[in-house]
# Entry
Amino acid sequence: MGTIFFELALTFYFAASILSIAGIIRKKDDLERTVFSLSLLGFALHTFYLFIRYIKSGQAPVFSMHEANSYFAWSILLISLIIRTCYNARILSFGVILSFIFMFVGAFFPRNIPSLKPELKSLWIDIHALMAVFGIALLSLAFVFSILYLIQEKAIKTKKFIGVGSIIPSLEILDKINYRLIFWGFPIYTIGLIVGFIKYLNLLGFNFDPKEIWSFLTWTVYLSIFYLRVKQDWRKKKAAYLTIFAFLLVIFGFFGINLLTESFHKPL
# Structure
């Protein structure tokens, strides 16, 4: 259903990723405008693909492994484009590479529209799923900026600006963007979880499954990061390390819990 738009978007993301990697290897950002154009074209096609799935199914395009990966990739690229515009920071290459990876993974899962149980066909369930995944996308980009922060810090200390260290923004910009991603990502993720939790209680009562337990564990880690970052009581380097750890929890919850357990949330 609208598969051609998915394939075209994936192709544009692939081209943008190749140019991004070339720029990183060459330690230059002269290809950034081309990467931006390709990313924008792919994003437009990707948006149309998600819109078609929503119109045809009447439900948020996020309830299968294919849809979840696709929407996650779309969210990451949208956030990356916003960051590029608001901060004039040339970090789009890292966002489009991450988007391509998840789009590529999503391409291997069945693309049929998932059949939800009648009780799950609800606007609140759609809001829960969309906000939770979008919040995770924001927090996942915080992971990327944490990696870049650590690379840049090491480059400054050793005075050896090699690889991406020679083209990424300053430590101040990286930390500022990381802070904003966590500042917005955590509340959005939290609201998504609360909406889902209330709906889940109405359906099944207090009968928690592995996905909910893991989500709560991940949430507590991000709560710690959010609190310490807002209070500014923590060294930026330690915050970067904890953000990386939290992202690993997210990835396991996104793939491991969904694929290895019999969760009520398991995508079709």
